[in-house]
Amino acid sequence: MIINRILPGFIYGFFFLVCAQLENIVFINLLLTFFLIQLNIEFYNITVSERNIFYKYILPIIYFIIPIIIIKNIRTGYGSEYLVFLLLMTWINDISAFFIGKKIGKNKLSNISPNKTVEGLLGSIFICILVCGKLSFFFNLSININSLLLGFIISISCNAGDLLESKIKRKYNVKDSGKIMKGHGGILDRLDSILIASTIYYLILIYF
User: Fold this and answer.
1) What is d(CA 84, CA 53) in angstroms, rounded to the nearest whole number?
2) Per-domain residue ranges for the chain?
3) Among 22, 32, 97, 109, which residue's Cβ finds the most Cβ atoms within 10 Å?
4) Contact 170, 160 (CB under 8 A)
5) Quick one: which of 42, 40, 63, 47 has its CA closest to 173?
């Protein structure tokens, strides 16, 4: 089970990191375009029986169309190092929440997502706070905000994105958003954290 998660996750992460760092932005634009198309397909399949206009048409714009545009703007407006920093922080949060929850998690975080634990949440927050300053220093980021606070905010927004996707899937009684990534489900399952985190992070970049 863990191996099935690690290998597809590594491949996904490798391509995302490479595209984010390449000087030619055509590659990151192509990757984000693929994400956007796949997210729309997955969300349509999840909400195919929905008749509410907000859930059917407005939520997708807020939930992933705007964040995908923001991710592109981070890369083109601030530079590859700012996007790579966000990607690494997001993955550090998700990986630490998963493994800490698996190892010592005993208290269920929410009925929305039974597999998530309080220990996993707190562990991911702690790890993100711990590594944020070192990563921002390594990438020489110019963000006028305390690194401990930045790590906390990114972790909270990542976990919020994870819970939001879980709530949507629970509403429509769906286990995975898709089957494109073995062990992970769909692209929405893989991007759920960064969709919210990128928006909050972008606002921080603008105002700080």
Assistant:
1) 35
2) 2-207
3) 97
4) no
5) 47
